[in-house]
Amino acid sequence: MDNLIARVATAADTTPEVARKAVALIGDFIQREAPEEAVRDLFQKAPAFPAIIASSTPTGGEGMGGGLKGLMGVAAGAMGGGGLMALGAELMGLGLGMEQIQTVGKEVFAYAREVAGDQVVGEISASIPGLSQFI
Known about the structure:
mainly alpha
């Protein structure tokens, strides 16, 4: 778990605390948006993800309020972004810029590929519209 946090913090030039929160947000997003079987495979092979999610304050978009979250999801879906816009807003709320967000995403999914394999990451990526451009 600490290796992943350190890796993300270094690559994105941020603090370990922000890196932990960012990884938790991404893990929570994957848990909510990806197919259950792919999530189960990923979390079994990469136990750092559920541990990081559990160690962070869960948001799952609730911080935006139910109505706004739903509206963002519908509007983003119409633009092909799915829940990615809400995730991006949450990551920006941590003080991360767009380049840092892309770096965090690439590091998280590189780690996922290393531990769970291309097939699992491919299944997750294919199931979430627009995700492939960030990994």
